[in-house]
Amino acid sequence: MNTAIEKKTVRIDTRVPVHIKELLEMAASLQGITPTDLIVAAISTASTKIITDHNMVQLCLEDQKRLANALTEKSFPEPTDYIKKAVEDYKKHVTSK
Known about the structure:
Number of strands: 0
Shape: elongated
Distance between the termini: 58 Å
Low-confidence stretches: none
Order of helices and strands: HHH
Mean pLDDT: 89
Radius of gyration: 27 Å
Structural class: mainly alpha
Strand content: under 5%
Number of helices: 3
């Protein structure tokens, strides 16, 4: 969410221990931003990372399933001319040494 473009906002209320509020205020002060801006940045960063990590795991699981299916298939497609030439070149270089 780009805050320069996004104008509509909603309120999120939360209660935190006093020491967390003090940490928030100190960190925001050190960064020269408001506590609200720090909260929004932290939530945005953490949420994006969580979603990205989740999607990466999902893709990895899907890739594992595809690989397992490909390895257990009984029929393989005919190699392309490019693959056949690569195999020939490989055999020439490996057997010539």
